[in-house]
Target: Alanine/ornithine racemase family PLP-dependent enzyme
Amino acid sequence: MAYLTLNRSHLKHNYQYLNNLFQENGIEWAIVTKLLCGNEDYLQEVISLGIKEVCDSRIYNLAKIKAIAPDMQTVYIKPPAMDEIEDVVRYADVSFNSESTTIKKISEEAQRQGKTHRVTIMIELGDLREGIMGENLVDFYDKIFELPNIEVVAIGSNLNCLHGVMPSEDKLIQLNLYKQLVEAKFNKKIPWVTGGTSVVLPLLFRQQIPKGINHFRIGETLYFGVDLFEEKPIPAMKPDVFRLYTQIIEITKKPKVPIGQMAANPSGDVFEINEEDYGKESYRAILDIGTLDISVDYLIPDDESIEVVNASSDMLVVDLGGQSPNYKVGDAVSFQLKYMGALSLLNSDYIEKRVIE
Model:
């Protein structure tokens, strides 16, 4: 049976590295937990690290976090849908917003629940996902800053999430200037500029973060130890907090080239034949996982001699080479993962999740 592991000691190592980095630079930070898809064992591991604030994009997950750690500050990191506002106010202490009509509804719901709800105003910096245009910020803030039971505590932005626009020192300076503009116009303090995500971390390594950027939200780099500018591991971090283990259910020596008339497979892929492979054979193993659980693009075999061939819905085929393999039926084949692959596995009810030391 295929299963996913979270390595507790590697998670702690990465957390401590990041926590020291942010403390040295006078920056507060939160852990993004949306990757964990509400898995209670994994959420408990994150909460036990000692972090004071977590961010998620699913109310279901925030409710679980509040059940585990009622005093944890929870942040809903996307603009709320209208029919979610009651639960957003109930389970999120802070929410990201870019629509004044939504914040007005949040204000009304916060009054009903007897709470003060804190708001981060999201600013568009070029990636064209959520966020108001900077030239509209003053008018936007004018509509919301006197709403009852609402406190604007931050402005923020997201980059690289949709169109791949990369962060830069200039963009972060621009974000901080928007905060200063609002403070000067309304004589109202906004404590935080949450301009940092995993993709912004390399700018911190290069000392290119403006002083006004005082809050980061980190997910991918915590779990995968990756520099998203260079797309390579950060030397001081562990890249394998998560690892996938699969079981071999067949090993057979077969032709390298399919036999028969070719057409698209059920996924719509058309196999391209390498003419050099005609007449050749290799040992092929079938593993007990498929595209229902993860795309083959997100798998990195720990054994570098293994080549991922392709997958159907429930079976993954790998090439073990032309020589008699060291594997047998029932053996485990392990993989490191890319972010989106881990996300798929964590969202799958068919994959067992384990914590290891």
User: Anything to note?
Assistant: The CA atoms of residues 12 and 49 lie 7 Å apart. The mean pLDDT is 95. The first strand starts at residue 3 and ends at 7. The two ends are 20 Å apart (CA to CA).
